[in-house]
Amino acid sequence: MRLNRATDTALRVLMLLAKVPAPMSVVALAARLDVPHSNAMKIIARLSAAGFVETQRGRGGGVTMGMPAEAITVGRIVALFETDMAVVECLGDGDVTCPFLPRCALKRAMSAATEAFIASLDGYSLADIAGRSQLPRALVTG
Amino acid sequence: MRLNRATDTALRVLMLLAKVPAPMSVVALAARLDVPHSNAMKIIARLSAAGFVETQRGRGGGVTMGMPAEAITVGRIVALFETDMAVVECLGDGDVTCPFLPRCALKRAMSAATEAFIASLDGYSLADIAGRSQLPRALVTG
Fold this sequence. Notes:
With 142 residues, the first copy, chain A, is mainly α. Chain A has helices at residues 5-19, 26-33, 37-49, 74-81, 105-121, 126-131, 137-141; strands at residues 53-56, 62-65. Chain A has a domain at 5-84 and 125-141: Arc Repressor Mutant, subunit A (Orthogonal Bundle), CATH 1.10.10.10. In chain A, strands 1-2 form a two-stranded antiparallel sheet. The first copy, chain A, is elongated.
């Protein structure tokens, strides 16, 4: 079981922004997290649409937190990026040939388990996570 | 977030066996679940090693349940196949370049959420799931 790579990157983008007070360019964010620039762009656009980050163009601009890190739970971030949460094929949008459909009790069990997963992550704020994680000094200041 | 395809197939194999009283050949299982024969073979070998199914060679042989469906939780099946449960890259075995390692609180949050996911699935036995799911009659008898 694995989260989408975009979710993983989004979490790291927010953890970095929560620790760095000054606006950061997308180029700098992508470099520091070692992800492709185009991926970082897409993820920041999505985080910005959700209000989690703000972007300012021009000199002195860049990406900053759009709300306090205390107000964002890890569960909200994961739920934003894992929009379908199709832990089994039949919870997704694609064609599925499973003979148990449409009367399958496994789907309900998986939906409940996914809710338990998110609810557990809602117990952690971004501030909790970022505050207890350590970045090499060069990444914060450089 | 998605389970491995093998996990998905293993769940369906067990749901089918829980509903079908007679031994079933691997060929028949693979055909009924519309999965490649080689995948079905590997999955049944793993289920057999865990004691969830029994296989008997020869005439009248085939695959049957190795223990009562009431005694197997969905969580145990998922945990057997999702051995690493690396929901984020850094929980896996591969090389990871994330700057937050080794001091990252996100890893602990993800481990706890994964435990909550499995614990939720431990609330359902295979018998619960198979009993409340319906197979087309042709699949059970044919």
